[in-house]
Amino acid sequence: MKLVIIAGPPSTGKTALTKQLIRRFQNEMKIAYLKIDVVKAFEDIELRKEFNILTKKVYSGDLCPDHAEVMVMGDAIEWAESTKADLFIVESAGLCLRCSPYLNQGLGIVVLSSIAGIHTPEKMGAMVSLADIAVVTKIDLVSQAEREVLIQKIKEVHPKIILLETNALQGTSLQRLYNLIKNSADIDKETLQLKGNPPLGVCTICVGKKEIGWKHHFGIVKKLDSLAAEYLYRGE
Length: 236
Known about the structure:
The protein is of the alpha/beta class and 236 residues long. It has 2 domains: 2-191, 3-Layer(aba) Sandwich (Rossmann fold), CATH 3.40.50; 200-236, no CATH class. It is 29% helix and 20% strand. It has helices at 14-25, 43-51, 65-82, 120-123, 126-129, 144-157, 175-182; strands spanning 2-7, 31-37, 54-59, 87-92, 107-113, 133-137, 162-165, 219-221, 232-234. The protein has a 7-stranded parallel β-sheet, with helices on both faces. Strand 6, helix 6 (144-157) and strand 7 (162-165) form a beta-alpha-beta unit. The model has no long low-confidence stretch (mean pLDDT 89).
């Protein structure tokens, strides 16, 4: 089974891209789809009705959606395999810019909107720097100069990333992406793991402590005047 994980900020065109992938491969492969979101999602219903594929969704609730993905991915892989799927597409809400939803196998695709601003790639951390492929959408809404600046910013964050530009609603210029997916290796679920390092640790904010100010918290803490990579460990 081949695995594709699609991440990116809200409203960048992740689902529009997913639809193009399904249209391309639905007659060649059996496709399973998982949507991971925070509170509400309808993509699974929409894709099931439009393409008659197997779909499932999970809400992360109080968890970061990328953390939720780590928790459920083992079960999700087994579910997709049990359906005899040839291609498993996972669409993540991707709201945590410190984490990365990508695994050490399959393809990790980050979807970026060309109208989001040229500094967006620099603000997104591992979601860009650990992706295999960046798909830049809505290219018909900005000038060529703006597109070129955005592409350069992505390359500065991740020099080796494969870059594609498209209008995802029409599916333009996606043939290379189709070939990359078609030629990608099948996953081995026994050796699957996160592609990047998770955050430093669970903190008292993660477990629900509401007080503000580092003096009220334990674990890895950070002060206002500390450097970007400067942390303190406080308590047990």
